[in-house]
Specification:
Elements (H helix, E strand, L loop, with lengths): L2 E5 L5 H11 L6 E6 L4 E2 L4 H7 L2 H7 E2 L11 E4 L2 E6 L6 E5 L4 E4 L1 E4 L3 E2 L11 H17 L2 E5 L3 H13 L4 E6 L11 H13 L3 E4 L12 E3 L5 E3 L2 E4 L4 E2 L32 E3 L15 H16 L14 E5 L5 E5 L5 E3 L1 H9 L4 H7 L4
Parallel strand pairs: 1-2, 1-9, 2-5, 9-18, 11-12, 11-16, 12-13
Antiparallel strand pairs: 3-4, 6-7, 7-8, 10-17, 14-15, 19-20, 20-21
Helix pairs in contact: 1-7, 2-4, 2-5
Length: 370
C-alpha cells in the first residue's frame, strides 16, 4: 500500500497532514508523520513562556496530536531524521531515523522547520523536558540584572517586550546589525515606528552593530564595531536556520548553498517527482513565517492527491501577501499588511489580534483541536 510520509509536524507539517488525512483513502494509502517531539510546538507563544513559566500558556504552547488526523486516518512516529534514500526508480525510498529504523515512502513531504538558538532551541523528549527547559530560562532571566538581545527581528523585539513587562526596571539592550529593525521587506517608516515604540519602554538600542561571540562570563562587553554595552545575560535572538542537513542525501539539486530547499512552483523539490517541500525551509522570496502555511498547505495537499491518482501535479504556489504582527508585551505592538498603500496597525489592534492571546487558537486549529 503506498505510504505518504510527512517529515515535520510543526506550523507547516501539521496543517498538511491534517488536510491530507481528510482526503486520502485509507484503504489505498497510509499516512505517516515523523516528528522529533511528541507534541506540536507553538513558537509564537514561547517567548512569553520562557520569561514567565506561565503553566497555562505552556499547555497552550505544547499541544498534543490526538486530533491531528481526521477520521483517525494517519499515524505519528517520533524520531529524528538523519537521511533520505531513493529506490532505483527514484520515485520511492526510505526515511532514515537516528534510531536505525527506516520508514518507507512513496510520496514524501518535507516540512522540517528551522533550528533556533537559546531558549527557542527546545530539547528533544516529552513535555516534561520542555517544561524543565522553560523553567531554567525563566530562572536565568530572573537572576540576571541586565540583558543584551542580539538581533532585532521579530524574536528580539518580542522578547524585549516580554522582559519589560515582567522586569520594568532592569536594563535591556537590543543590538541589530542593520540600520533599522526587521529587514527591508517592510517600509522604513514602519521599521522606525517599531524602534520608537521599543525606546518608549526604556529599552536601549544599538543599530549597525554586531556581536560575534555570545560570552556570558562578564558584564562589560563590546560589539564587533567596538561599541561598549553591559549585560549579565546575552541572548542570541536571530532568525532560525533551515533544518535541512538530512536533505543533502537527495542530491545536489535539492538544496541551495545556504541550505534552503529548491522547489518548483508546484512545491515539488527540484529534480524530484514524488518529493514536496513547504514552510520556512524552501527557497522562495518571501518572509519565513508560519502564516504562510495558509498558502503552502493547499498546494501540497492538492498536488499529492493528484500524484496518487495518476495525474501530474499542477497547482502552483504564487506567493502570499507580506504581513507581520510584532508584539511589545501583552498590551502593545505594531503590525503591517502589504496591501493597498500599506496598512499599519498600532497597539490596540496588534494586542487584540496577537499580543494578548499569542494566536493560540490558530495553533489549536492546525492540529485539529479547534
Amino acid at each position: 500500500m503506498p505510504n505518504v510520509v510527512v517529515v515535520g509536524a510543526g506550523g507547516f507539517g501539521a496543517p498538511v497532514a491534517h488536510g491530507l488525512s481528510a482526503k486520502l483513502d485509507s484503504s489505498k494509502h497510509t499516512l505517516t508523520v515523523i516528528t522529533s517531539r511528541p507534541y506540536f510546538t507553538h513558537y509564537p507563544a514561547l517567548l512569553r513562556v520562557l520569561v514567565t513559566s506561565d503553566r497555562q500558556l505552556e499547555d497552550d504552547s505544547l499541544l498534543g496530536y490526538d486530533k491531528l488526523f481526521q477520521n483517525g486516518n494517519g499515524s505519528i512516529k517520533v524520531g529524528t531524521v538523519t537521511g533520505i534514500t531513493k529506490a532505483p526508480n527514484g520515485k520511492s525510498g526510505t526515511v532514515e531515523l537516528a534510531s536505525g529504523e527506516s520508514v518507507p515512502w512513496d510520496v514524501l513531504v518535507l516540512t522540517p522547520g528551522s533550528l533556533w538558538e537559546a531558549g527557542l532551541s527546545l530539547p528533544e523528549g516529552d513535555k516534561s523536558a520542555a517544561i524543565s527547559w522553560f523553567d531554567s530560562w525563566a530562572e536565568k532571566f530572573k537572576q540576571a540584572n541586565s540583558y543584551a538581545l542580539v538581533g532585532a527581528g521579530a524574536v528580539g523585539i518580542e522578547l524585549a517586550g516580554e522582559l519589560r513587562d515582567v522586569y520594568p526596571n532592569k536594563k535591556i539592550t537590543l543590538i541589530h546589525g542593520d540600520s533599522m529593525f526587521l529587514n527591508d521587506t517592510y517600509p522604513a517608516k514602519f521599521r522606525k515606528d517599531i524602534e520608537r515604540r521599543i525606546r518608549i519602554r526604556k529599552i536601549d538600542v544599538l543599530l549597525s552593530n554586531h556581536v560575534d561571540t555570545i560570552d556570558n562570563s562578564g558584564t562589560s562587553h563590546k560589539t564587533r564595531e567596538g561599541t561598549p554595552f553591559e549585560a549579565d545575560l546575552i541572548v542570541p535572538t536571530r532568525g532560525g536556520r533551515p533544518n535541512t542537513e538530512f536533505i543533502k542525501s537527495l542530491g545536489t539539486k535539492a538544496l541551495t548553498p545556504y541550505g534552503r530547499v529548491n522547489v518548483k512552483p508546484t512545491l515539488q523539490v527540484e529534480g524530484e517527482t514524488n518529493v514536496f517541500a513547504a514552510g520556512d525551509v524552501i527557497e522562495y522570496k518571501e518572509q519565513k513565517q508560519v502564516a504562510k502555511a495558509a498558502g503552502h498547505a493547499p498546494v501540497i495537499i492538492e498536488n499529492v492527491i493528484a500524484l496518487l491518482s495518476g495525474s501530474s501535479p499542477s497547482k502552483e504556489y504564487k506567493g502570499s501577501m507580506e504581513a507581520i504582527l510584532v508584539t511589545n508585551g501583552k498590551n502593545g505592538g505594531a503590525g503591517y499588511m502589504g496591501m493597498l498603500w500599506g496598512v499599519k496597525l498600532g497597539d490596540y489592534l496588534t494586542a487584540k489580534i496577537k499580543s494578548k492571546t499569542l494566536l493560540v487558537g490558530y495553533a489549536k486549529a492546525a492540529v485539529g483541536l479547534a
